[in-house]
Design goal:
This protein is of the alpha+beta class. It folds into two domains: 47 residues, no CATH class; 246 residues, Alpha-Beta Complex (Fumarylacetoacetate hydrolase, domain 2). It has five helices and 18 strands. The chain is elongated and about 75 Å long. The structure holds FE2/S2 (inorganic) cluster. FE2/S2 (inorganic) cluster (FES) binds next to loops.
């Protein structure tokens, strides 16, 4: 008898077993024999454990579910989606936003747990899209988000399309300006830690952002600067900018790799949030949050 094989379809998530398979009950009695059965791995089948092709609607269903989580401010369960589907869900959300009249202005670089590594603390780089509607100036209604947190980041303004991997020696060819930034993220799964696939589907938790005045990039020696986060003028987080990839400029290099790997081109004039230098600070209505980076500037948001 041939050794059975199992094929997990990376796009649909279905699991196909080759050959004849006996389905047994709790006592081991054969209740059915199936030839080349396909098992549902996406979780949407109405005929579980068998695949009934409901996976065709998967991207639309999960994207809608995540959108509703944001609209209703109610955490969604994890979907345990596949990498291919995760990227399709992220693109679906961007398409929806563009069709709703929003404009893509840039991306955020983020980190997520890597489900392929045994060490849960090992992360991978992911990115999320930023649109003009996510920008907040001076104030933000935090009741519209799920456990929102503020982080201190560097923001880059790109001067050239990013469509290939950038070598560290080329970074200033791609960046014209830098600014102090505050990224507000909220995972639509609530406080649950998501593996990279679900985090990608969630657009890397991108919720809102704000940044200060631009300064010319070539003037700044970011490696020696420190970021501070204040709540109501009291300092609550401080970290050197080297907490970002060991050298904040390298965020541009890392981003170029992730974009190239997923076939996404980022146009010149985009903004890029670097990934956080500090821990995220939970935001509560009534407080004022400020990020300061000496020599670079500051950005302040009143939460209401
Ligand atoms: S994988 Fe086909 S319905 Fe779930």
């Amino acid at each position: 008898m041939d050794t059975p094989t199992i094929f997990v379809n990376p796009k649909s998530g279905s699991i196909k077993i080759s050959g004849e398979v006996n389905v047994v009950d709790v006592d081991g009695n054969v209740v059915e024999t199936k030839e080349n059965p396909k098992i549902c791995g996406c979780g949407l089948s109405k005929d579980k454990p068998w695949c009934d092709s409901s996976h065709g609607e998967y991207v639309k269903i999960v994207a809608n579910h995540l959108r509703n989580a944001r609209t209703l401010v109610k955490a969604s369960p994890l979907f345990g989606t596949t990498p291919v589907r995760a990227r399709e869900i992220r693109e679906n959300e961007l398409k929806f936003r563009i069709e709703s009249g929003e404009t893509l202005v840039g991306v955020k670089l983020g980190g997520a747990l890597d489900s392929k590594r045994k060490d849960e603390n090992m992360g991978v780089n992911i990115f999320g899209y930023l649109t003009d509607a996510m920008q907040c100036i001076e104030k933000l209604n935090v009741s519209q988000f799920i456990h929102p947190r503020a982080e201190a980041e560097i923001v880059f303004k790109t001067s050239k399309e990013i469509s290939s991997e950038i070598h560290p020696s080329e970074i200033l060819d791609y960046v014209s300006h830098v600014a102090a930034g505050m990224e507000i993220f909220d995972y639509r799964y609530g406080e649950v830690r998501a593996y990279s696939e679900d985090a990608i589907a969630d657009n890397a938790g991108a919720a809102a952002f704000s940044y200060g005045a631009w300064v010319l990039a070539h003037r700044e020696n970011l490696e020696v600067l420190t970021a501070e986060v204040f709540v109501n003028d009291e300092i609550v987080e401080t970290a050197p900018l080297t907490a970002i990839k060991g050298n904040p400029w390298l965020a541009i290099v890392e981003l170029s790799k992730v974009l190239v790997a997923t076939g996404v081109k980022l146009p010149a004039g985009s903004i890029v949030f670097s990934g956080s230098a500090t821990n995220g600070v939970h935001m509560v209505a009534g407080n004022t949050y400020r990020v300061e980076i000496a020599n670079l500037g500051k950005v302040e948001i009143k939460a209401n």
